[in-house]
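Researcher: I'm preparing a figure for a lab meeting and need a structural model of a single chain. I don't have an experimental structure, so a prediction will have to do for now. The sequence is pasted below. Please return the structure as tokens so I can convert it later.
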Amino acid sequence: METIALLTGRGNNTLPDKNVLDILGNPVLHYPALAGKNASGISKWYCSSDDEKILSAAELEGYKRIVRPAKYALPTSQHIDCIIHALDEMEGNGVFPDILVVLLANNVTVKSKWITDCINHMKEKPHLTSVVPVYQDNDHHPLRAKGICSNGLLSPYINDVEGLVSTNRQDLPTCYFLAHNFWVLSVPFLRSGNEGQKPWSFMGDVIFPYLIEESIDIHEEQDLQTAKIWIEANYKE
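Model: Understood. Here is the structure written out token by token.
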């Protein structure tokens, strides 16, 4: 089963150049890119972006460029658009992966061991449609979430709950959120045309969780400091 890594980063962001901003002497994307290079079982590495700075920085990390069309690089574009486009480009050049490791360029909380573990899970259980990191977060539990009604008042996001719902987060059922650091995807499922669990329907319905402690997306300036602290404490690549 051939496994290919795809680093994805969009240039059109609210925080300009966030994927190539400096953290400890390296661009942000250096950390997920290097983790992908050091993971076991990956045979080829690509980067999909509309941005020359991202593509050039990724090439220095050993990732072949895939220039993303502008229509897939809009703030409203969906991640699946660039994934399918990248697969089309790979297959057009004779590369036919079975497993695709999608690395997100704006998240430094990635370890090569995590990627390797997730790839191995996929290989050992070929019925899986994806293997993805998740982290526990009961602070933002859906049972605590509210929406604003048309009358301007708050309403529970989940209304069909029976019995007492504790105000103590530790009393609620354990809640996990999908990390946006990397995803290991089944290419046969991606090509099947089927859809899975929303909103990331391209992950399918047979999703294996890989538990990590936290995931840090870089969207704002203050996220850079949090990411720096994580790298200093955890990064051993």
